[in-house]
Design brief:
Helices cover 48% and strands 11% of the residues. Helix 1 crosses helix 2 and helix 2 packs across helix 3. The strands form two sheets. The chain has a six-stranded parallel beta sheet with strand order 3-2-6-7-1-8, with helices on both faces. The protein has a two-stranded parallel sheet with strand order 4-5. The two termini are 35 Å apart. The chain is built from 14 helices and eight strands. By secondary structure, the protein is an alpha/beta fold. The protein has two domains: 166 residues, P-loop containing nucleotide triphosphate hydrolases (Rossmann fold, 3-Layer(aba) Sandwich), CATH 3.40.50; 76 residues, Orthogonal Bundle (Arc Repressor Mutant, subunit A), CATH 1.10.10.
């Protein structure tokens, strides 16, 4: 496999296949190209089975782009590769293993509208006017719990105790979860917490999936929440061949639970981490890079990168 189309940092990101790796990839640094080359290298050079690779990203669009690039770049069968989103992966696991949690294989996945319909019914049952307490506010509260990897039965840490201090909201949450269970349904957040619960409660199921996926890759890591981080940690603890790609300077989803600590604390969780920085920008002019660097450098919650470019002024 020829890697001459990559710069030196990108080559490092491809070749360091074993053990924990964090790739800090600035905007326009060829992140997707590098990640695709890394997977291709695992398949073609390391002769890893496609069934042993799990690549998880944040959106269906990103997963689709990665699959398309892989299908063009390699002659190997990429159909067996799991290139997917967190929610799609967890839905698939629960379809296979959900009976452990009392779910049938044909359980329903509720979207936001269906979840809010349940919440409206619960508010009406309690005689609460939706002008007094909106279904959206309750849904955000429930999402907050699930983004933090909480599910019923898990001991409450200090963070969750703060949620539980609002007794009315907490009781609605408990009723909401009971209604989902009665309806053989899971909401989006529950797909991830359901798998976390499954893996914690039934270690033999976790071992099965740890053995199945020897290499785990995570794109857009800066946008992951705590639940997604917990899931990644569970899957990668055995082989520890975990590669995350992200940029703390592009974290834009804190409003829906993205936790920048997942990047900042990564090396504490995996002390043997190899840190690689993709700092060459192929997209922007020098003036734009300099202006962006001036703004970004004021952010103290970052690992630190020095973006640069060979592009002409413009």
């Amino acid at each position: 496999m020829n890697l001459d189309f990559l710069n030196e940092s990108q080559k490092q990101a491809v070749l360091m296949t074993d053990g924990p790796v964090m790739i800090l990839a600035g905007a326009g640094s060829g992140k997707t190209r590098t990640l695709v080359a890394r997977i291709q290298y695992l398949l073609e050079v390391k002769h890893v089975s496609p069934f042993q690779v799990l690549a998880v990203t944040f959106s269906n669009k990103a997963a689709r782009e990665m699959r398309e690039r892989l299908s063009v770049n390699t002659q190997l069968n990429v159909g067996a590769l799991q290139v997917t989103t967190f929610h799609s992966f967890c839905a698939r696991v629960l379809r296979m293993e959900g009976t452990y949690l009392g779910l049938s294989k044909n359980f329903t996945i509720y979207d936001d509208g269906e979840s809010q319909s349940i919440i409206k019914a619960l508010l009406a049952k309690r005689g609460i006017n939706t002008k007094e307490l909106s279904p959206y506010t309750v849904a955000a509260y429930i999402d907050g719990l699930k983004n933090r990897a909480y599910y019923i039965g898990l001991p409450r840490n200090e963070d969750i105790e703060k949620f539980a201090e609002d007794r009315r909201m907490w009781d609605i949450f408990l009723e909401y979860e009971a209604e989902l269970h009665r309806s053989n349904a899971v909401d989006f957040g529950g797909l991830i917490t359901g798998v976390i619960n499954l893996f914690r409660t039934f270690p033999e199921v976790l071992t099965k999936y740890q053995n199945k996926y020897k290499y785990v890759l995570v794109d857009e890591y800066q946008d992951t929440n705590r639940a997604q981080f917990e899931l990644i940690l569970q899957l990668s603890q055995h082989h520890r061949n975990i590669c995350v790609v992200g940029d703390e300077d592009q974290s834009i989803y804190s409003w829906r639970g993205a936790d920048i600590r997942n990047i900042l604390d990564y090396e504490n969780i995996f002390p043997e981490t190899k840190l690689i920085k993709l700092e060459q920008n192929y997209r922007s002019s020098k003036k734009i890079i300099e202006a962006a660097t001036e703004v970004i450098s004021r952010n103290i919650a970052r690992k630190g990168k020095q973006m640069w470019t060979n592009n002409d002024e413009g």
